[in-house]
Design brief:
The protein has about 400 residues and is of the alpha/beta class. Helices cover about 55% and strands about 15% of the residues.
């Protein structure tokens, strides 16, 4: 797509600083670099051709992440502006490069020549048409032989992309594509912070939560030269961990509430001993199940709430009304009071069983009743201890949040 109204201008390493998003510069192409001497020159040349052939006023920004193989000298000789990020990490390199970018539209892509920067006009076309974030989809386009290992193609990428779509209501085909575009306004809105490979997931999660317009276009994925810097298991876990942090509601809070409610119903119904429903015997096995569901449900619930509060404290998510309300209502003192009372009730149930037993009431049926009461007492005691300990943790998060707010 040619924009003939704007002359071709490629900014070099010596270009003067400008205001972010200056109207004089339309496109910034940003690529991270860590020892990519075999490919960085070709990537910069392809990006430069895209800028010149389409008449854009643009720049190429290479974010050096500690290269020692001459990559940076090559990038500069090809016309890139180089910025340096001493903090290692895929996301860290991008954070530095993008924050230094001056264009109204930003295109990002890896510097290993697996993505063709000649595709950038397709991304820019969607951004000009109103998209906030544009993804180059390898699965909608073409993956050349040898470009993607089969575990990544048929297991890793589909699972991680499906998980992101399920948790955040998207219909993305390639959530881990390295060729992307977005506006300066979208970049500021997303406020990305992660420094590792999860940067790719954070962008789409934040874009989804902020209700930004996400588009995909088909691209071709090429085999890379040199060794890959990816660690399949570790990097996949970083993506999963980050998605779990941002979705405690559907994954932990709601299942926890359901399990806790079912468990308490069973425990409450059986605390007096076993009974029959028609010909079905409802006894200690259901009591054990109820106790397990109660404790497990509360664990999931408190973990989900704590995860949400932690993400809130770290500014990974926006202010959340229900978390604010919870932290105000569920104070340390109230949590300790409720938890302490439940612990006392549990201990009291055990003392009652002991008193009855020592009093000589040892009929066979009563032994079953004692067992049910003991399980109920154990459940109440564990729930009380969990509530008390969780109140401590949430109180610490709230203190940190208040301190952070004051510092801001």
């Amino acid at each position: 797509m040619t924009d003939s109204s704007q002359p071709s201008e490629l900014m070099h390493a010596s270009a003067p600083a400008q205001t972010i998003g200056t109207p004089d510069l339309e496109v910034s192409i940003v690529m991270p670099c860590l020892n990519e001497r075999d490919t960085i020159g070709e990537c910069v040349r392809k990006a430069r051709r895209a800028i010149e052939q389409n008449g854009w006023r643009g720049e190429i920004v290479v974010s050096d992440n500690g290269s020692t193989d001459g990559s940076i000298e090559i990038a500069i000789s090809e016309g890139a502006r180089v910025v340096h990020q001493p903090l290692r990490g895929y996301g860290a390199a991008y954070l530095k490069g993008i924050n230094e970018a001056l264009g109204r539209y930003i295109i990002i892509g890896d510097s290993d020549d697996t993505y063709d920067f000649g595709d950038t006009p397709l991304l820019l076309e969607q951004l000009r048409a109103g998209a906030d974030v544009v993804l180059g989809s390898r699965f909608m386009g073409k993956i050349l032989p040898g470009a993607m290992p089969w575990p990544n193609r048929y297991i890793g990428n589909p699972i991680l992309t499906g998980m992101l779509n399920l948790l955040f209501g998207q219909k993305i085909s390639d959530a881990h594509s390295g060729l992307r575009g977005f506006t300066q306004a979208a970049w500021r809105t997303m406020d990305l912070r992660t420094t590792g490979m999860e940067f790719a997931s954070e962008m789409l999660i934040k874009a989804s939560l902020k209700r930004l317009r996400i588009k995909e276009i088909p691209i071709t994925y090429h085999p890379r030269l040199g060794d890959s810097k990816l660690n399949r298991i570790e990097d996949a876990w970083r993506h999963v961990r980050f998605m779990l942090l941002f979705s405690p509601g559907p994954l932990f809070v709601l299942p926890g509430l359901v399990a806790l409610a079912l468990g308490l119903i069973l425990v409450g119904a059986l605390v007096g001993g076993p009974f029959f429903i028609g010909s079905m015997y409802v006894g200690v096995h259901y009591m054990v199940l109820g106790s397990l569901l109660s404790v497990l449900g509360l664990m999931l619930l408190t973990f989900g709430v704590s995860a949400k509060a932690y993400a809130f404290r770290e500014h990974l998510v926006e202010r959340d009304t229900w978390i604010d309300t919870l932290l105000k209502v569920f104070t340390l003192e109230r949590g300790l009071l409720i938890g302490g009372l439940l612990v006392l009730i549990g201990v009291g149930m055990f003392l009652n069983i002991l008193a009855q037993y020592l009093g000589g009431d040892r009929a066979p049926f009563n032994d079953l009743v004692y067992l049910h009461q003991a399980l109920a007492g154990t459940t109440v005691l564990l729930i009380g201890m969990q509530i008390a300990s969780s109140s401590f943790f949430l109180s610490l998060l709230d203190i940190a949040r208040q301190h952070s707010s004051i510092g801001e």
